[in-house]
């Protein structure tokens, strides 16, 4: 039985174990000492710049492959606060454009993460999130579906098949909100477009 390193690193237990390991390391070596805080901040900022740089490098890799394979799917409409939603939308794109858009979403999430960690650190003087995100940020970005396809060379089957399934942190996401690639859904969306 061979163990796939990407599977191990992507497993939720790895994240939990890494969190507790980091917590013990902080307690053991007293990283929350004010003398170390400027160094930890500098390391955090450098790692975040590197992570965002890797994102733009990944966009360049995707563009170099120039995969213009047509990708058609139906995207579920966004529900309003009252539970009502609009019509599903037919999306006509290419693998190139889809992958670039997904990588840009990941970069935007990285900026959001930086803002949250900065708030926690500056407002409450927490050091642990800075240390954890300095390492987990690389892991998270390099294990995205786009990186697994374009960097690690995995085949676009199963969970790497475009359009990607939407995943929530708790694993709870309604099936009806997932992108649909079946011909029936695409034909219904086309008819709805023609009816407008």
UniProtKB/TrEMBL annotation:
Region (Disordered): 175-196
GO biological process assignments: protein targeting to ER
Record bears the keyword Kinase: no
Keyword set, alphabetical order: Membrane, Transmembrane, Transmembrane helix
Stretches that traverse the bilayer: 42-62
InterPro entries documented for this protein: SND3_fun
GO CC terms, sorted: endoplasmic reticulum; mitochondrion
Protein's UniProt keywords contain Nucleus: no
Protein name, entry field: Inorganic phosphate transporter
Species of provenance: Phycomyces blakesleeanus (strain ATCC 8743b / DSM 1359 / FGSC 10004 / NBRC 33097 / NRRL 1555)
């Amino acid at each position: 039985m061979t163990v796939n390193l990407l599977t191990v690193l992507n497993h939720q237990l790895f994240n939990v174990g890494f969190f507790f390991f980091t917590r013990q390391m902080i307690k053991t070596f007293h990283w929350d000492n004010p003398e170390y805080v400027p160094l930890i901040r500098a390391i955090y900022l450098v790692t975040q710049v590197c992570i965002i740089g890797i994102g733009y490098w990944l966009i360049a890799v995707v563009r170099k492959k120039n995969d213009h394979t047509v990708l058609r799917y139906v995207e579920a409409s966004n529900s309003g606060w009252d539970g009502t939603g609009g019509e599903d939308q037919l999306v006509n794109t290419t693998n190139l454009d889809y992958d670039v858009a997904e990588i840009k979403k990941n970069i935007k999430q990285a900026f959001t993460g930086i803002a949250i960690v900065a708030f926690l650190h500056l407002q409450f003087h927490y050091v642990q999130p800075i240390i954890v995100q300095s390492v987990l940020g690389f892991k998270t970005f390099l294990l995205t579906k786009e990186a697994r396809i374009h960097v690690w060379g995995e085949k676009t089957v199963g969970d790497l098949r475009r359009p990607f399934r939407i995943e929530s942190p708790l694993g709870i996401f309604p099936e009806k909100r997932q992108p649909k690639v079946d011909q029936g859904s695409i034909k219904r969306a086309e008819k709805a477009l023609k009816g407008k």
